[in-house]
Design goal:
binds 2-amino-2-deoxy-6-O-phosphono-alpha-D-glucopyranose; Rossmann fold; seven-stranded parallel sheet; single chain; alpha/beta; three-stranded antiparallel sheet
Length: about 240
C-alpha cells in the first residue's frame, strides 16, 4: 500500500494522473467510480483533460460502487444523477457503458448479477474509493464480512447522518443501499482511495495502522497488492510522523 500525503489539490492532481496514464495506455479501460464530495474535484480534472483533448472516454466502461435503495436514477440525490452531473454528461462516454447499481429493482437474489456484469466486461482496471468517517468503503459498513459480492446493505445511523447534508431532511436519507461488496472491491486490479478533511483522520489512521478487521472495512485494502491512498494533510493527521 502506497500512502501519499499532500495538499488536497495535489492529491487530486496525482490521482487524476493515474486515470490519465491508464486511459492513454488502455483506452478501453474499465473504471470503478465513487460518489460523495471527495471525488468531485477529480471528476472536474478528468473533464478538463477530456476538453483539452488529452483523454477520451469513448471506449471506457464504468461501474459505480453503490446506489441508494428506493431512489430512481433521475432523483437528484441518486448516485446515478450525481455521476451524470459530475462526469458522464460532460465527456464522450457511451451511456450504455456506464453502470450504477439499480436502486429500484435490485433484490437480495439478483444483486450479485452486478459482479457478473463486471466480470463480463473484463474486471475493473482502476477503482476509485472514498472512505466513510466510520471506515466504510462503498456502503460496506463496520462489521461487513470480507467475502461479500454486490448486495443490499443497511446503512449505519452515523452514515445516514453524514449524508443527510445532501437531503432536505435527515429522515429522507434511505436506510439501505446496493453496494459492491468487499470481495468485489478487492477484485479490482488497482485501487485508489482518496480521503480529505479532518473528519476522515480517525478512519484513515485506523485503516492504515490498526488491525486488518471488519470493524474498519477500509483496513482490508492492506491485503490488496496495488492500492494508493491519497490523504490530504488534515485526513492524514493521525498517521503523520
Ligand atoms: C458515502 C459513499 C462512499 C463515500 C463516503 C464518503 O456514504 N457510500 O462511497 O466514499 O460516503 O463520502 P464523502 O466523500 O462525501 O465524504
Amino acid at each position: 500500500m502506497q500512502i501519499i500525503i499532500d495538499s488536497t489539490a495535489k492529491c487530486v492532481n496525482q490521482a487524476a494522473e493515474h486515470f490519465y496514464a491508464l486511459l492513454r495506455r488502455k483506452p478501453d479501460a474499465v473504471l470503478g467510480l465513487a460518489t460523495g464530495s471527495t471525488p468531485e474535484a477529480l471528476y472536474g480534472r478528468l473533464i478538463a483533460q477530456y476538453e483539452a483533448g488529452y483523454i477520451s472516454f469513448r471506449q471506457v466502461t464504468t461501474f459505480n460502487l453503490d446506489e441508494y435503495v428506493g431512489l430512481a436514477g433521475d432523483h437528484p440525490q441518486s448516485y446515478r444523477h450525481f455521476m451524470q452531473e459530475k462526469l458522464f454528461d460532460h465527456v464522450d462516454i457511451d451511456p450504455k457503458r456506464t453502470h450504477v447499481p439499480d436502486g429500484l429493482h435490485t433484490t437480495p437474489e439478483n444483486a450479485a448479477d452486478y459482479d457478473k456484469m463486471i466480470g463480463a466486461a473484463g474486471g475493473i482496471d482502476l477503482l476509485l474509493l472514498g472512505i466513510g468517517a466510520n471506515g466504510h468503503i462503498g456502503f460496506n459498513e463496520p462489521g461487513s464480512s470480507f467475502d461479500t459480492l454486490t448486495h443490499i446493505a443497511d446503512l449505519d445511523e452515523s452514515t445516514r447522518q453524514a449524508n443527510a447534508r445532501f437531503f432536505a431532511s435527515p429522515e429522507e436519507v434511505p436506510a439501505q443501499a446496493v453496494t459492491m461488496g468487499i470481495h468485489t472491491i478487492m477484485q479490482a486490479r488497482s485501487i485508489i482511495l482518496m480521503a480529505f478533511g479532518a473528519n476522515k483522520a480517525q478512519a484513515v489512521a485506523a485503516a492504515v495502522t490498526g488491525p486488518v478487521s471488519s470493524d474498519v472495512p477500509a483496513s482490508v485494502l492492506r491485503l490488496h497488492p496495488d492500492v494508493t491512498i491519497y490523504a490530504d494533510d488534515e485526513a492524514a493527521a493521525g498517521i503523520k510522523v
